[in-house]
Amino acid sequence: xxxxxxxPQRVASxxxxxHGGIAALVAxxxxxxxxxxxxLQLQTLFVNISQVATIAIVAMGMTLVIAxxxxxxxxxxxxxxxxxxxxxxFLSDLGSANPMLGVTLAIVLPLFIAGLCGVFxxxxxxxxxxxxxxxxxxxxxxxxxxxxxxxxxxxxTFSNPSFSYLGTGKVLGLPFQGWLALxxxxxxxxxxxxxxxxxxxxxxxxxxxxxxxxxxxVRRVKIGxxxxxxxxxxxxxxxxxxxxxASDAARNGNLMELDAxxxxxxxxxLLQGGRAPIFGAIxxxxxxxxxxxxxxxxxxxxxxxxIAKAVIIILAVWVQQFRRA
Amino acid sequence: MNALVSMSGxxxxxxxxxxxxxxxxxxxxxxxxxLIGQNGAGKSTMIKVLTGVYDRDxxxxxxxxxxxxxxxxxxxxxxxxxxxxxxxxxVPLRSVTENIIMGYEPKRLGFLVDWREGNxxxxxxxxxxxxxxxxxxxxxxxxxxxxxxxxIARAVSLxxxxxxxxxxxxSLDASEVEVLFGVVRELKKQGVSVLYVSHFLDELFxxxxxxxTMRDGRTVSTRNVQDTxxxxxxxxxxxxxxxxxxxxxxxxxxGAKAKKGxxxxxxxxxxxxxxxxxxxLTLHRGEIVGLGGLLGSGRTEAxxxxxxxxGKRSGAIELHGVVGQxxxxxxxxxxxxxxxxxxxxxxxxxxxxxxxxxxxxALLPKLASRGQIDFAREREIVQAFIDDLGIKAAHMxxxxxxxxxGNQQKVLLARWLATQPDILILDEPTRGVDVGAKREIQSxxxxxxxxxxxxxxxxxxxxxxxxxxxxxVVMHEGRSVKELTNPGxxxxxxxxxxxxxxxxxxxxxxx
Amino acid sequence: MLDETAFDLRKYLRRxxxxxxxxxALLALILFGxxxxxxxxxxxxxxxxxxxxxxxxxxxLGMCFVIMxxxxxxxxxxxxxxxSVVAAYLSPYGIQVALxxxxxxxxxxGAINAFCIIILRIPPFIATLATxxxxxxxxxxxxxxxxxxxxxxxxxxxxxMGQAFGLFPWAIVIVAGLTLALWLVLERTxxxxxxxxxGGSEDASNxxxxxxxxxxxxxxxxxxxxxxxxxxxxASGFGAxxxxxxxxxxxxxxASVVVGGTLLTGGMGSIPATVAGALxxxxxxxxxxxxxxxxxISFSAYWQMVIRGGFLFAVILLQSRVIARQQKVxx
Lengths: 325, 511, 331
Description:
The structure holds 3 protein chains of 3 kinds. Chain A is mainly α. Chain A has helices at 2-13, 16-35, 42-67, 75-90, 93-97, 99-126, 132-151, 161-168, 176-194, 196-206, 208-213, 218-244, 256-266, 278-297, 302-324, and strands spanning 156-157, 170-171, 174-175, 246-247.
């Protein structure tokens, strides 16, 4: 009993959030190098990067929201919504007539709509004081519904190379979305460490009352976090659509909220708020993707991978409880 | 010995710091016993030892002559000790009846709650106190007073022999207080003892039989209320001689001579609610104005009004000659107001952030251009304050939670000094810090004022007010009632001003 | 609530405005349907509607108890999918084995939730999200990602398709019984009252000496059991265990509970109104079907989710005002 209580505390006393994650990553890599056939090949890297990018992008947004002490369950639905809008726009008459304009609008407009979803979530939480989990549940339900209504539930397939570049393009031989995720991470890292907004974000999560009494614009910062999270989710939705050259409102972003929360938590985000490890979120996304890949590549079914993910989430949060205490 | 409760020689320390030493308390059956003392005198520790929240380090507790074996609040309840906390331990969404019988519901067939019987019992116990309300209504629909009475009714229905009331009247209005007093008298009539903790000394004369005063973890005196005076009680609380207080005239003992500048702040009969009903204040550049008064007198509420946290209902606030209350902390800071809050943990520090980040939190808007923080300047400013204030931290990026209380407080003080507010409001700036840090903080405040800024100083320590403030506005029950001007104010004079008003007799100048 | 003094209609309406609203909305929608569509009031529509919604009502009932403690259970949909497979596997042994077996499996998942929430102190929504994943994975594993046909030779399919007393499907009778039992538990037993007290204020409940952990464990076990029952209905109604079903069920359940006037922060709730809320949401779908059948509009089924979200939004707005008022009263 004594030992059982002490172990997590000892783990917690280490700067676990990062080192633990890196240790897990190294362990996964070593395991795969020895046991997974064809692991050390460029193709494997490609597959994993293109898969991990969407999780990482959403997880970074989720990290910002979690940093305020909130949560956003609507990310998957927002992905579906943005993903459904894009083909509608560039396949429309206007979009077909002006391909350049069509593709531009097909990226900008869905992101704008996603941003509006973020405003909705943020206002519910920061102004109306609705619990985040409940506030974001509304769009969690109806966001995907709207997407399906817009597309009539049909699978929209298309062939549009310039739009598909989002998901299939390569820069320096590596998938475009991988670079995109990295660029976003750098920008967000800069925002969090270098700007007043970032400082307030962490202050609000650390002690909202103190941040308010020190003149922090609590509402504005909170709404901003939800907006960024939603826009990033919208972007991830576009990428998924671009990868598949098809938009399926029923499946796009399904269960993404879980992956994103798991990645953020594994990456060191505290559910109570006050911490926004952006690169941790990427690390978390990579770990989750690698766990999935490892299990799959070694003949473990996809289904069991779900159970493994459940265990990872519980463990990560459990360790957090001790760290905080 | 036929005392209901007898506690003697109680010792209790937290992490080596003694909270109680040789504390005694004796409550007779059917008496209303008051427990008074300054903040930190050990009243609540004493209660928590009695109700099993804390274990005592030494000493004896007897209940009706038998050694007490209470070690949890639940056991205290079962031994007939009920505590009515300041934050009510009731469920406002549920009905009055449920709140009274919860956990002890009358049953039919052994498992079905008998609401008819339950409602009847609830109504009956409330009727005993002359309260006739619809017991099926959710508790939250009633006033705080009624809710408090329901808490008492629950205690009584559980056959309590001792009811502990912690600051029961702090959020009640005058008529509600009367109802509560009626209940206390009724309890007494039924042979139930009441331990009554209050900062409002007037009340004690109305309902209490005896009063025990504590100071610095010790029991100072137990007196019959009939044979004592408020002055005597206050003298006990503060550890002063009452004759000295009464005899002390004007001296030129303490207080700095301030050169008054322009008026930077004026508050004119400001009210924000029942806890702050009438507040007047004028603050000049280069002076420290103290707000004196007992707990609950509205000092903190006044500060919150000036900082724009609580919206005002009436009256006027004037900053730099411009009329208007700040719309919130952000606006207040822009207008040159700073507010060091009383509760360092809940409203001050952001524990996981570094010393540097904590210190510049209020300064951020000024530190940034286009949203980007100027780190070089930030470090420069932080380093300057660390040096000036002698903040002991390993480095400026150390998390603030790892610092001692005194150093945390210095960081928070620096947070506000850095914004160079014309009006700096300090709520208990030296509470909970060691003596050395206290002296230092006091001298920083003085030197800040000498630069031509104004400070409003709130303190429970009369010594600090008397020696630190140029003028002292005395507050009582949400009103500013008197102003004392240094030089010439002594602690005794301040105490007498408070007591005077408490007694409500004679005029100040008569002495 | 249950006063021996004369029934005061006005007081009742004021205190139960949310419940009353949902009942009125339900009646209005039924009237609308009766007047507009020929077959709306037919025995067939009536019984198939109730039969289909029995599983949603069961889940909503469990969810109602969880939410009344201030918690949430996001795992119910996956657990129902899991137990539908369990029920299908057990169906050859008859209903007397399949029903308790599947319900027990659901209770098992509830136990995992309770363990994570009470012992490991993990926030309910994280713990139940994880169980949601685990149950989904588990369902796919034990079924091999196939629908598992039930044994048509046993009495199992009678549950979803046979008629009790020649009138209603058994599922409806069971859900009606469950509703009554849970109503009694909530209103007339100590544990029911404790559930409400915890949601009202967990600290106060502890200080009052109530058995808080026992009641919390109870609600998660109950919610798991209700999801298990829903899985049985799913398997019997569709003749197969459905490992891929249950997506979004937790949201329907939460929406039903909230539409029924239960406060999401806990402390206040009603069993009959929850049932009414579930029926109302189901009926909206039913009406849309009729409307499409008439060809007057072509509302796709996808509007269902949008409407559900809209319902939730409206109710949360109302509730946030109620809560704000409550906090004001508390000072």
